[in-house]
Amino acid sequence: MWMVLQQDRADDYIVATGESRTIRNLLETAFSRVGLNWKDHVKIDPRFKRPADAHQLLGNPGKAVKQLGWKRTVTFEELIHLMVDQDLKSVSRQ
Fold first, then answer.
1. Rg of the chain's alpha carbons, rounded to an integer?
2. Which of 19, 54, 64, 76 could make an SS bond with 70 (beta carbons 3.0 to 4.6 A apart)?
3. How far apart are CA 44 and CA 29, in angstroms?
4. Are residues 54 and 46 in contact, defined by beta-carbon separation less than 8 angstroms?
5. d(CA 72, CA 33)
6. Does the pLDDT of residue 66 top 90, yes or no?
7. Are the C-beta atoms of residues 89 and 35 closer than 8 Å to each other?
């Protein structure tokens, strides 16, 4: 965000990994962080599946890389671990 604010002109940038992930990837990573199997805790209701949704959403950070010199420093797995760890800290303080 700091690099975006340093530009002479306002513009839009996509900050993304350029990698495609699924909700299943997120669930596997998050639940395994605390030693659980996501399948034991998540139920998938087929009524809520939306066949019209895009099957793959992928952010292209090319403009941010080229114009800002941005590069990711955290992997998908690291980000999910940070989020889970923060939630665990928040719960332990209550």
1. 17
2. 64
3. 17
4. no
5. 22
6. yes
7. no
Are residues 39 and 82 in contact, defined by beta-carbon separation less than 8 angstroms?
no
- Interval 30-44: pLDDT, tens: 999 999 999 999 999
Strand, helix or coil at 11?
A: coil
Query: How is residue 37 annotated by DSSP?
Result: -
Residues written for the chain:
94
Closest C-alpha to 12, from 20, 21, 4, 2: 4
Local structure of residue 41 (DSSP, 8 states):
T
Collapsed DSSP state (helix, strand, coil) of residue 26: helix
Of the candidates 59, 64, 69, the one whose C-alpha atom is nearest the C-alpha of residue 17 is 59
Query: What token pair was written down for 47?
Result: 């009524």
Q: Are 27 and 33 in contact (CB under 8 A)?
A: no
Q: What residues contact residue 61 under an 8 Å CB cut-off, 6+ apart?
A: 13, 14, 15, 16, 17, 18, 70, 72
